């Protein structure tokens, strides 16, 4: 492996994302940021199957090294990214299957010239941290989530609020548990990710969780895609009082690495961009709808979303919906009926670019952490509709603490992992209320959440600008953790 052939005096940072879009996208932003700021030479690892996507996200001066799966794994037809799985239940097995890349990573790291001074590896690739450590390469872990949810996860493991809540008998679903260190935070069973919301959580997800945290604890740092004005108190708490992992480095929002221009802007404008331009020219405000890349949403729920958006459109709301999966059945004639008011896109879009479009004023989101950060960084208030994982905690941060969004009311049984759907009338109401609250522009007009998100977006830009908190954190992280290039003697390898 040879890094892009210039800047040999710079430290060499290698980046290895987990094969899920929500993990890969921010890592590609980090790679571009390190290059654009001249902080490092960067090599980005990818499987061949994910490489075209990765190359489309990266600047040309980031070297991409492909690590193919060994033949026996290919023969088993292994998926190459989380989005290819039917649901998140096989996630632990997928994570283990990906460890077949380990020998390839080790060969590549050992042969790298200049030597790799720092490996930024996703915590899901827990074995990559051990491989790098064995080669004397420091590592920094990337988890994809925020500091708030990370701390809450620790509190939940330590204090087992589920046991306390369920021992109370009736009404446990709605009862709250105050977090000792942060008394303003009240958790309910619905806020606690499955299976942590069970009194004795166990099974493959818990085993995976233990492996991830062992890797993080053994690494030299933890990158968090956040910034001081958003989560400063939680980062401070982690770095001062927590012993569950190494120092956290808040270096976000990483989407701002592209300086507000978006990624992958090709010569031909995509249809959704033209549509947004038309709406802007007509003075319309648009609601952007995207409910995540990793979780399968049942067709019945997607049809309720369609019904809700259709009703909202009839009441004057314009919307752009990036639908997953691409072949989702939204009900006969839906797209024709909303034509002109609503656009449905079934391909990969440049979400960051969409959110920055002047006419996009509201975001109905599952509150995956990247989406939440991107919404904030673009100054777009959110309607938070968590679907699983740590998303309920993200929604708490966005709605209750930062007050930059409103909540989609979800039946408690559904929020705690049970069945049920959010009805179209609820979606229509939230969509209308969000767009009314969003007001006329991104400049800070409209309701409280719209004003708050405009103010926070401006602090996000300050954080990544020269001398800002995230700007300094990234520089300090590289200087502190990265082995310098000079005097670099490679260790002998087998
Ligand atoms: O058509 C699309 C769809 C998505 N994106 C981008 O893909 C990323 C998606 O990330 P995120 O919003 O976090 O959603 P998920 O991929 O669904 O999130 C998974 O990963 C997150 C980060 O770990 C967790 O917070 C979530 O709970 C988990 O489901 C974002 O950068 C989006 O901008 C696009 O650019 N175009």
TrEMBL record:
Transmembrane segments: none
InterPro entries: UDP_glucos_trans, UDP_glycos_trans_CS
Protein's name according to its UniProt entry: Glycosyltransferase
The species this protein was found in: Oryza sativa subsp. japonica
Keyword Isomerase: no
Superkingdom classification of source: Eukaryota
CDD domains referenced in this protein's UniProt entry, alphabetically: GT1_Gtf-like
Known EC number: 2.4.1.-
Similarity-based family: Belongs to the UDP-glycosyltransferase family.
GO MF, one example: UDP-glucosyltransferase activity
UniProt keyword Glycosyltransferase, yes or no: yes
Keyword terms of this UniProt record: Glycosyltransferase, Transferase
PROSITE patterns (alphabetical): UDPGT
């Amino acid at each position: 492996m040879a890094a892009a052939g210039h800047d040999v005096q710079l430290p060499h940072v290698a980046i290895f994302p987990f094969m899920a879009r929500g993990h890969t996208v921010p890592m590609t932003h980090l790679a571009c940021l390190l290059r654009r700021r001249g902080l490092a030479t960067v090599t980005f690892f990818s499987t061949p199957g994910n490489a075209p996507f990765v190359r489309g996200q990266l600047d040309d001066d980031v070297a991409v090294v492909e690590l193919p799966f060994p033949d026996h794994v290919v023969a088993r037809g292994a998926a190459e990214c989380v989005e290819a799985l039917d649901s998140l239940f096989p996630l632990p097995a997928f994570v283990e299957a990906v460890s077949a890349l380990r020998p390839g990573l080790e060969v590549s790291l050992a042969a790298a010239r200049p030597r790799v001074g720092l490996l930024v590896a996703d915590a899901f690739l827990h074995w990559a941290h051990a491989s790098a450590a064995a080669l004397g390469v420091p590592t920094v872990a990337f988890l994809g989530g925020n500091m708030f949810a990370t701390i809450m996860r620790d509190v939940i493991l330590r204090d087992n609020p589920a046991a306390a809540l369920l021992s109370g008998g009736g009404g446990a679903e709605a009862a709250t548990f105050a977090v000792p260190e942060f008394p303003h935070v009240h958790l309910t069973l619905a806020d606690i990710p499955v299976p942590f919301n069970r009194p004795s959580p166990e099974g493959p997800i818990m085993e995976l969780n233990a492996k991830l945290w062992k890797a993080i604890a053994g690494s030299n740092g933890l990158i968090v895609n956040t910034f001081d004005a958003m989560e400063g108190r939680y980062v401070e708490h982690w770095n001062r009082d927590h012993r569950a992992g190494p120092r956290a480095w808040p270096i976000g929002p990483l989407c701002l690495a592209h300086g507000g221009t978006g990624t992958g802007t090709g010569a031909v404008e995509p249809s959704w961009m033209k549509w947004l331009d038309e709406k802007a020219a007509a003075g319309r405000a648009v609601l952007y709808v995207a409910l995540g890349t990793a979780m399968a949403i049942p067709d019945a729920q997607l049809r309720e979303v369609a019904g809700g958006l259709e009703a909202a459109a009839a009441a004057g709301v314009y919307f752009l919906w990036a639908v997953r999966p691409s072949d989702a059945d939204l009900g006969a004639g839906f797209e024709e009926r909303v034509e002109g008011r609503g656009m449905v896109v079934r391909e990969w879009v440049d979400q960051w670019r969409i959110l920055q479009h002047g006419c996009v004023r509201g975001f109905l989101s599952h509150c995956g952490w990247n989406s939440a950060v991107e919404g904030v960084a673009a100054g777009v208030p959110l309607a938070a509709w968590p679907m699983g994982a740590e998303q309920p905690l993200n929604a708490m941060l966005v709605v209750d603490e930062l007050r930059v969004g409103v909540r989609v009311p979800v039946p408690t049984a559904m929020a705690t992992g049970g069945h049920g759907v959010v009805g179209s009338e609820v979606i229509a109401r939230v969509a209308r209320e969000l767009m009314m609250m969003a007001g006329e522009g991104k400049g800070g007009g409209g309701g409280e959440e719209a004003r708050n998100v405009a103010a926070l977006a401006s602090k996000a830009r300050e954080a990544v600008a020269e001398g800002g908190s995230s700007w300094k954190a990234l520089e300090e992280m590289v200087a502190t953790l990265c082995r310098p290039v000079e005097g670099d003697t490679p260790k002998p390898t087998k």
